[in-house]
Amino acid sequence: MFIRNKKMLLSLAISSSLFSIPYAANASDHEHHEHEHHDSEHRQHSAHVHGVVEMNIAQDGEHILFEITAPGSDVVGFEYAPKDENQKQVLAQAVKTLNNPDSIFVLPSDAKCTLEEVHVSHNLSNDEGHDDHDHDHDHDHDHDEHDGEHHEEHSKHGEFNAQYEYHCEAISALNEIETKWFTQFTHSQKMTVQYLGDSGQKATTLTADAPAITL
Q: Which of 37, 38, 99, 125 to pair with 139, CA 20 to 30 A apart?
């Protein structure tokens, strides 16, 4: 399966299955009426909050998919096209870091996970939705036109989108996922995480002091 198609499935699965799960810090907020539930869903897809990064994780058999959406201010400290050489270098370094998932995730070695695909994009350039890299280890170059359209609708501010796919030979050993995001991108304050997989459905918030989710 292609990563963009998987991304669509991931988003659909997450949105249809996890909105009923309260975040640990806001459990009581989800005991209200249906119209408030709708508002929560709208915020989940539309909110652009500085200091807050969103990560969706979905398991598909022996495959694990990650999607991270982050405000530009969290990643590089600005949300517009670079204005000078220094900002260009900062942006280039951020893209390089995002294209190296070993600098973002720590997965249990027992799970025997192998990276299969990486896709990183941002709109902090004159060409919105700019794809910096699309590493497809299966050599797929199929494009989803709706991906760019959704990205533009998601936020009027500059932001990054990163997608990763792993194949894990011993997926049952994938009992924890740790992120090094806060070490790499110090502007970020927290990361909201939604997970859907064989171990169940979970939603939580990660911080620099608590950077791991137990599955």
A: 125
